[in-house]
UniProtKB/TrEMBL annotation:
It is an enzyme of class 2 (transferase). The keyword Lyase does not apply. This is alanine--glyoxylate transaminase. Its EC number is 2.6.1.44. Belongs to the class-III pyridoxal-phosphate-dependent aminotransferase family. The keyword Transferase applies. It comes from Streptomyces gelaticus. InterPro entries: Aminotrans_3, PyrdxlP-dep_Trfase, PyrdxlP-dep_Trfase_major, PyrdxlP-dep_Trfase_small. Keywords: Aminotransferase, Pyridoxal phosphate, Transferase. One of its GO terms (molecular function) is transaminase activity. Its cofactor is pyridoxal 5'-phosphate. It holds the Pfam family Aminotran_3. Homotetramer.
Length: 427
């Protein structure tokens, strides 16, 4: 009898990567822990790619899903759907976008695809500005605005994409500048680019780059960009698929670190809101959302079961102030990891905010990415009972730490101890 791994390999695409030399089958979870098929327990610091936002098997979400599934699973957007309207109302209010309209999809990719459709139709332009080192999803349109060739398998595209500097603070041509000069240089680059293009539809950016290794510009960069974009009539799309819902601690949305000149025109979300149920969506000002002059639906977008899960999950998040918890526990965790990193020759930088923390690894004594060390630490952490993620530019050399937002201080300490040990094992 072949193993599940062999069966997976035989039937799945080669490009569907699995973590670990001996991939893990996760069979169940509770709180911040998951169990594998052999009954071994792990502390989960990755939440299925920042998606288990509140906790595994959160009773409130499970109950809402069960009750809704018992009533009706699907009706489609052709009929009124109470949970969808209720979640849209809450997301519209939380978004900070005036006169906001919300359209639900089933993934972040589809949310960004919708944002691109809206922006290009509204502006009658197929030019998009995106950030270097970005990731926005897996569809034909999303890979064409992804500034990271490890995740962009084709350059054929319906869009013309121009890449802007600024998403990566400590590498690249402006790395040695102070924060204010860094922003100035990136704005000058954007101005230069706009002077040489026709009329781009929008700039799309992740406030903190997720797949790119939890890198971000100094606070205020996108506000400075916003001022320039507005002069040219170019829209700002904030991709909040990883940064939304309070994960960054200080802010509910990542864009709020850049909110001096108002909210984005379009905001996209996914991952955490459904706690694993497939919800994505796009929020836009009514004039932008309503600019399409043909019908459009998503058969599964806004389905009652996922919406019931989203409502229960969002209520739990807000009622338990998990954003505050992310700020407090994340703050302690990052300090602890910085202290650990200071003792390791492999650690170039510990960065992030809230419960979105990256540890960039390099070959000792150099500035060179060290993907082998990142893989080794991932394995060693697993051995120690801790699941983490990795990411980062063209060489995957950044450890990504993004636990459920209900993480306790004791669990943060426990995870940090395992990480310290795992990092020691690579030097
Ligand atoms: C910032 C960002 N945007 C979009 C996506 C795509 O979301 P999905 O995988 O749900 O299609 C991701 C996924 O990792 C992401 O990190």
């Amino acid at each position: 009898m072949s193993s599940l791994h062999d069966r997976h390999r035989a039937v799945s695409p080669d490009w569907l990567a699995l973590y670990y030399k001996h991939p893990l089958e996760i069979t169940h979870g509770e709180g911040r822990h998951v169990w594998d098929a052999d009954g071994r327990r792990y502390l989960d610091f990755f939440g299925g790619i920042l998606t288990t936002m509140t906790a595994h098997a959160l009773p409130e979400v499970t109950k809402a899903v069960g009750e809704q599934a018992g009533r009706i699973i699907h009706s489609s957007t052709l009929y009124l759907n109470r949970p969808m309207v209720e979640l849209a109302e809450r997301v519209a209010t939380l978004s900070g976008i005036p006169d906001a309209r919300v359209f639900f999809t089933t993934s972040g990719t589809e949310a960004n695809d919708t944002a691109l459709l809206l922006a290009t139709a509204y502006r009658r332009s197929n030019q998009i500005l995106a950030m270097r080192n970005s990731y926005h999803g897996r569809s034909f349109s999303a890979v064409s605005i992804t500034g990271n060739n490890a995740w962009s398998p084709t350059s054929l595209s319906p869009l013309q994409t121009l890449y802007v500097h600024g998403g990566v603070r400590t590498r690249g041509p402006y790395a040695d500048l102070g924060d204010a000069e860094f922003i100035e240089a990136c704005v000058a680059d954007l101005e230069d680019l706009l002077g040489q293009t026709r009329t781009p539809a929008a700039l799309i950016a992740e406030p903190i780059q997720g797949v790119g290794g939890f890198t971000s510009p100094p606070d205020g960069l996108y506000a400075a960009f916003r001022r320039v974009l507005e002069r040219h009539g170019v829209l700002w799309i904030s991709d909040e698929v990883q940064t939304g819902w309070g994960r960054t601690g200080e802010h509910f949305w990542g864009w709020q670190a850049h909110g001096q000149n108002g909210p984005p025109d379009i905001l996209t979300f996914a991952k955490g809101i459904g706690n694993g149920m497939s919800i994505g969506g796009v929020v836009a000002r009514a004039d932008v959302m309503n600019c399409l002059d043909a019908n459009s639906i998503s058969t599964f977008g806004g389905s009652p079961v996922t919406m019931a899960a989203g409502l229960a999950n969002l209520s739990y998040l807000l009622e338990h102030d998990l954003q505050g918890n992310a700020r407090r526990v994340g703050g302690l965790l990052i300090e602890r990891l910085r202290a650990i990193g200071a003792g390791s020759e492999c650690v170039r930088e510990v960065r992030g905010r809230g419960l979105m923390i990256g540890i960039e690894l390099v070959k000792p004594g150099t500035d060179e990415a060290h993907p082998e060390a990142a893989s080794a630490v991932l394995e060693a952490a697993r051995e120690g009972g801790l699941l983490i993620g990795k990411g980062g530019g063209h060489n995957t050399s950044v450890l990504r730490i993004a636990p459920p937002l209900s993480l306790t201080i004791t669990e943060a300490e426990e995870g940090a101890k395992v990480l310290a040990e795992a990092l020691r094992s690579v030097g």
